[in-house]
Amino acid sequence: MTNQLSTQRNVEQGVATAIADGHRHRPVPEPASDAFEAWASELGHLVADGGIETVERAVAAVCASARRRQLEPTCVDVLADRREPAVARERALGRVLTALNASRASAATIEVA
Questions:
Q1: Cα separation of 11 and 38, whole Å?
Q2: How many CB atoms lie within 10 A of CB 1?
Q3: By the 8 A CB rule, do 31 and 101 touch?
């Protein structure tokens, strides 16, 4: 039980680092995995706390992955366009993350560039 909690804590710390750390290039978990769900949840909290503009690197990675899988093209276009209102981009992020989480089309990881 303690080992599971320790593992979960490490995953959560890694998730936050992959999203927020602009100096490191860490892979984002494969969509439709438990790790991706945790990552997406953390991303949502960061957006809620600081706005979508604070996670542009993660947004770019999400857009690239969704485009490769041809998921939610209109939402991806809105999400990728920094000129769109933040509220529209945030809603698009939710739709795209949901589509990615439902997708099992690829085993490739997303790289935060």
A1: 8
A2: 5
A3: yes
Express each pLDDT in 53-109 by its tens digit.
999 999 999 999 999 999 999 999 999 999 999 999 999 999 999 999 988 644 444
- Residue keyed to tokens 């604070």: 54
Give the total number of structural domains in the chain: 1
Angstrom distance (rounded) from CA 89 to CA 44: 12
With beta carbons less than 8 A apart as the criterion, state whether 59 and 88 touch: no
- Confirm if 37 and 44 have CB atoms less than 8 A apart: no
27, 109 Cβ separation under 8 angstroms = yes
- The whole domain housing 84 covers 2-111
The pLDDT tens digits of the residues spanning 16-53 come to 444 554 434 456 788 888 889 899 999 999 999 999 99
Report the predicted TM-score, pTM, of the whole model to 2 decimal places. 0.71
Which residue, chain included where needed, has tokens 């992020």?
93
